[in-house]
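Model: Ready when you are.
Researcher: Fold this.
Model:
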Amino acid sequence: MRKSFAFAIAAVLVVLYSSIFIVYEGQRGIMLRFGKVMRDSENKPLVYQPGPHFKIPFIETVKTLDARIQTMDIKADRFLTSENKDLIVDSYLKWRIEDFSRYYLATGNGEISQAELLLKRKFSDRLRSEIGRLDVRGIVTDSRGRLTTDVRNALNLGTNEDDSNADNEIASAAARVEKETKGKQLILNPNSMAALGIEVVDVRIKQINLPDEVSGAIYQRMRAEREAVARRHRSQGLEEAEKVRAAADKTATEIKAEAYSQALVLRGEGDAQATKLFADSFSEDPEFYAFIRSLRAYENSFKNDGNIMVLSPDNDFFRYMRDPSKQHHNTNN
C-alpha cells in the first residue's frame, strides 16, 4: 500500500514537473502540439514571454528562440565603386528577432542558420548597391556613417529597386507567412528583413582596403614619388652645399690674401726696423759690423756639403779665422 502511494506521488511529481516549463530572460517560447505550432485566433504562432508556464506533458513541447541581439561577421568581400575601383570591405551587423511568430514561420521552425543566410545575402547585395553609388573618397571619409545608415534602413524597410536572388527568397518566405496566417499579418515590403520578423539594429564597416594588386601598384607609385622628391631634395642640398663651399673658399682665399698682405707689410716693417737697428749698432762699431758680415759669409760659404774654395790663407776673407796675435800683427803691418 505504501509502495503504491509512493509510486503515485512520484508519478504526480513527474507529471507536474513535466507540465511546467520556464522561458528565461532573453528568450521567447513557441508551443508545439504533436509537432504542430499552437496558434492564436489570428492563426499566428503563440509566443510565450519570459517566466514559468504550463503545458500538457508528453503532448506539447516548447521551441525557444533567442531574443538577444545577435552579431554576425561578414566575410571581407570585393566591391566596385562608382569610379569602377575595387575595394575590399570587411563589415559586420547586429540583428535581433522583432516578430517571433513571423520569424518562426519564415525561417522554417526558427532556424537561425536560415535567417543568417538570407540576412547575409541581402546585406551583401544592399552594401554592394550603396557602395556602387559612391566614390572612394566618399566611402573612406565622411560618407561612411551615411553609408551604413542607408544600408540598415534598406534592410529593415526594403526597397523597390532590388531584384536579386536574396530578395526572391525573402519574398517567398514572406508569402509563406501570409499564406499560413491567412493574410492576418501586417502588410510589409516583401524584400525587407521585417518580412522575416528580423530587425537590423546596427551595421558597421570594420576595414576598407584596396586589393593586393592595386595596393601594390599604389605603393610602388608612392615609393617612386617619394624617391623623386628625395632625389630633388638631395640635388638641392648638393647645390646649396656647393654654394656654401664656394662662398667659404672665397672667404678663406680673401682672408689668406689679406693675412699675407698684412704679413708682408709687417715683415717689411720688421726688416726695416731690423736694418735700422743693425745700421745704428754697426755705425757705432764698424769693426763689429765687419765681424758679423764675415760670420754670415762663412755661414753661407760652408753650409753646403761638397763646396770647395781655393783661397790663399793670407786672404782677407779668413782674417777672423787666424790667431788673434797674428791677426793683430798683420794689422800693424
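Researcher: Now this one.
Model:
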Amino acid sequence: MKIEKLEPSQHKQGRWLVWLEDGCLVRVEEGDVVSLGLYTGKELTQAESEALAAAEKRGQMDRRAVALLTARPMSRKELEDKLSTPVRRRKKPGREEIQPAPEALERERERLAEDARRTAERMEGLGLLNDQEYAKTVARHYAAKGYGPRKLREELYRRGVPREFWEDALAQWEARPDQLDELVSRRLRGAKPTQENLKKTSDYLARRGFSWEEISAALERYKDQWQE
C-alpha cells in the first residue's frame, strides 16, 4: 500500500492526514508520523499498514478518553468501562439491521477492554487520570453536601475507586456536631420533638450515611435545646 499524500490537519493541531492509494484516509498523531517513518510516496509493508491502522485506533480512543475526562473527573474503572463499551451506529431508515454473531461481539469486547486498559495507562501517565485524587474529590463533594462517611464509602465503591485510596480520602472528612445539628434543625424546623418526627429525622440522617451514635447524639441535643 502506497501513501499518496501526507499533510497536517488544518483543523486539529498535532494531527496528520494520511491518504492511501486505495482512497482511504487515515488520521494519526504527529508522534505516529515520526515513529512510523511516514512520508509521501512511501510503500507500506503489511506490518506497517497494520501499525498505521493500530495508530489510528489508538488515537481515536485517546481522544475519546480526553473528551470524557474533560467533561468530568472519573475513576480508572469508570473510564475503562466507558471506553470498552462498543459504540453502535444508528440504524439507517429502510435498512435491515444485521446483528453480529455472539462470538464476534465477545471478541470485540475483549479487544476494546484491552485497548481501554492501555488507554487508561496513557491517561495516568499524562496526569489526566488519578484514582487517589479522584477519591478525595468524591469525598469532598459529598461531605460538603452534608453526607456521612457511609454514604461516602458507597459512592467510592459505586465509582470503582480502589479500596486502597478510601481511608486517605475519608480522613479529610470529620463529623462535626454542628453539621448534624444543622441538618436536624432544618428537618424539624423548630417543631416540638415527638416520637414520630424524631423517627423520620433519624431515618433521614441514616440515609445520608451517618451512624446511629452520631444521630442519637444530635437528636438529644435538639431535645435539650427545645426544652430550654
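Researcher: Key takeaway?
Model: The longest strand covers residues 3-8.
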